[in-house]
Amino acid sequence: MDINTDAVDEVVLALLYLNLCGENRAWKGFDWDALSRLHEKGFIGDPVNRAKSVWLTDEGLIEAERLFTKYFVRDGGQQGNAKST
């Protein structure tokens, strides 16, 4: 099976946005290879540590919100207001 890892990374980053707790931390219960690729792309901090969460960089937070809106907001939403509290 030829997996589109870029698409996997996009969806994982969007789901990290869904899991945000606090300003920029999210639970890291996703595929380790995807998390490593997101770290290499500069979207998240190094996932290899004892913490159960990972922090999103400023760029990662912006991209995560964009992807969350792209994949999970029915009407396309407005960026900057995709996540409700």
Task: Describe the protein's architecture and organization.
The protein is mainly alpha-helical and 85 residues long. It has a single domain, classed as Winged helix-like DNA-binding domain superfamily/Winged helix DNA-binding domain (Arc Repressor Mutant, subunit A). Helix content is 45%, strand content 9%. The protein has helices at 5-18, 32-40, 58-72; strands at residues 20-21, 25-27, 53-55. The protein has a three-stranded antiparallel β-sheet. Helix 1 (5-18) packs across helix 2 and helix 1 (5-18) crosses helix 3. The radius of gyration is 12 Å and the shape is globular. The chain starts with a helix and ends in a 13-residue tail after the last helix. The relative contact order is 0.20.
Show unreliable segments: none
- Quickly count the domains: 1
The coarse overall form would be globular
Which strands sit side by side, in order, in the main sheet?
1-2-3
- Secondary-structure element series: HEEHEH
Counted by DSSP, the helix tally is 3
Structural class: mainly alpha
Q: Between the first and last Cα atoms, what is the distance in angstroms?
A: 38 Å
CATH superfamily, by name, is Winged helix-like DNA-binding domain superfamily/Winged helix DNA-binding domain
Under the CATH scheme, which architecture would be assigned? Orthogonal Bundle
